[in-house]
Amino acid sequence: MLMKKILACVLCFLCLFSLVSCQGAVQFSDLLSTENLAEEALEELDDRVIYVKDKSNFTEEYFKTPDYVRESTVCYAQDTGNINELGVFHVTEGKAEEFSALLKEQYLDASLEKNRDWYDSYIPKETAKLRDAEVRTFGNYVVYAIFDRSERRSIFRTIEDELALGT
């Protein structure tokens, strides 16, 4: 009888442990458009800043967008004294980390290196935004944000909330 109680307790503990460990892994949707995600994220920010969708693909100046990028939306502040910029990319399964590294190294880091002197001379308070720019992955979505810390936090939280399944 004691053995049955111990076995039942052990099984309950294992079930509980498996449920708790599964909760840590967030799963993300793969069905949302990058344009909608960008719009949702930017709506949470200061509404006095006007954002323009990039039609010229200026990231192409730094690297050729790989074929595994399904869709992308890049938005930047219309005001030339503000370097706020958001990029949302939807990539093929299993390519998010690779593309994240590519964006960080060949776009954000290269852009900082190439433009730092100009920013420091003309809009020095904006240089920190580019230096501190972040790239994050959410399932098959890769997002970069060139914003101040609080705005980046808001952007990433909004995108994570939009993409998270089961919330």
Features of the shown structure:
167 residues, globular, 5 strands, 5-stranded antiparallel sheet, single chain, alpha+beta
Structure, briefly:
With 167 residues, the chain is of the alpha+beta class.
Write up what this structure looks like.
This protein is an alpha+beta fold. It has one domain. The chain is 49% helix and 18% strand. It has helices spanning 2-23, 34-43, 96-122, 124-131, 149-163; strands at residues 51-53, 69-77, 85-91, 134-138, 141-146. It has a five-stranded antiparallel sheet, sandwiched between helices. Strand 2 (69-77) and strand 3 form a beta hairpin. The longest helix is centred in the middle third of the chain and has 27 residues, at 96-122. It is globular. The relative contact order is 0.17.
